[in-house]
Amino acid sequence: MRLEDTDDKFDKPFQALDQALSHCPAHIEFEQDNYYVTDFDSAKQAMGNPDGNYVEQSDFFNVDGAMFSTRDAQIAIGKDAILSLKRYYEQRRSQIIETFRDQVGQGLSWPDSANDLMYCTFYDFLVDSQRSPQLRKHLDKVLRHSLYSGQKTHGSGWRRAFIRLRVHRALRAVFKARRQQPPYQGTNRDVIDILLACSPDNESPKALAQIFLSFFFAINSSMAFTLAWSLYFCAKEGGVLHPAPWIVKEALRLWPVAWNLPRTPSKAHTLGELNIKQSDTVTVCPYVLHRHPDNWSQPERFYPPRWENATADAPYMPFGWGTHKCIASAFALNFTSDLISALQGQQLIFEQLSEELHPEPAIAPPEFRVKVKTSA
Ligand code: HEM
């Protein structure tokens, strides 16, 4: 099924996709030669790439359209980072949960509060603030201008580009300076240390800076928005009415924050019923897979109990699939479930502050407020 050529489909892609999905299409041609697959097998073929039909690609390790360093370096970085992240969280677990409960108790607005929580609590995982204090002011600005929901509508494109330029320069300087120093032996090993330790010695500071920012966005947007969507649905239901892991999985089914994963064919080939040319784009869109009526019953309904009997081979890809699947998938689910569980027993009041969705690479919920109902 081919979507009509209107500007609206780029401004409101979810509406356009919903409309297409209501026809139960075999595929969606979002724009000319860009095919959104709808069945799990085709999605697995594109993401797993068993026949080498696609250029090796991962949004995370993408540096100006090419892949970062060597695959060995990428794997080493992923392993080191996830071990470090788990350790970091375990050491601060109760304090982070308490901060989240406080935030909910204060009746703040979301998703910005989720960005604040992630940024403050995981900052030192990304950058040891003692050793590289000069980065803070730059990263504060990236957070404010790239992620806060109000800024998305008010922050101009050129201002964001300028901020990125400045942060890149500051990051490159930090990578160069740290490289001159002997390997760090202290207890605050951060992502900068991990990237330097796991990459070849001649890896460019520019590429290292770009991968650092992939970590920054994974924590401060993907994780933050996953928490915000989970809270959004809980609050709408008036509280935590189901096991937290079901709530988080169901929130990510309806709103997979990484909702668009395009792949570039390396040669002409057949994908399901599609004849793909090398010049086409095949997009695995978890939003489409998760809401296609052939894949899920009542796909638009938020219904956590569906996870009670879900099998491991359900058509579900919020973390990608195959070689480049997210290293943090289990961590992100556990972490978000821990926080949502902490609201068990509280009556939540939901207030929608905006209807607007911003189709950014990571999709955040529209602005909302949550209050806790007091018994008095
Ligand atoms: C809920 C939060 C998260 C979501 C929804 C998410 C989603 C994804 C997705 C969809 C991919 C596959 C990208 C592709 O194939 O193009 C991916 C890859 C990746 N993610 Fe995440 N991510 C999350 C959190 C994190 C965190 C916290 C980290 C690290 C601290 C992380 C590190 C990575 C890495 C290293 C890869 C690349 C794996 C590879 O290419 O081998 N992610 N993520």
Automatic annotation (TrEMBL):
It comes from the Bacteria. The keyword Oxidoreductase applies. SUPFAM superfamilies: Cytochrome P450 (SSF48264). The chain crosses the membrane at residues 207-232. Keywords: Heme, Iron, Membrane, Metal-binding, Monooxygenase, Oxidoreductase, Transmembrane, Transmembrane helix. The keyword DNA-binding does not apply. Pfam families: p450. Signal peptide: none annotated. Belongs to the cytochrome P450 family. This is Cytochrome P450. It comes from Pseudoalteromonas viridis. The lineage of its organism: Bacteria, Pseudomonadati, Pseudomonadota, Gammaproteobacteria, Alteromonadales.
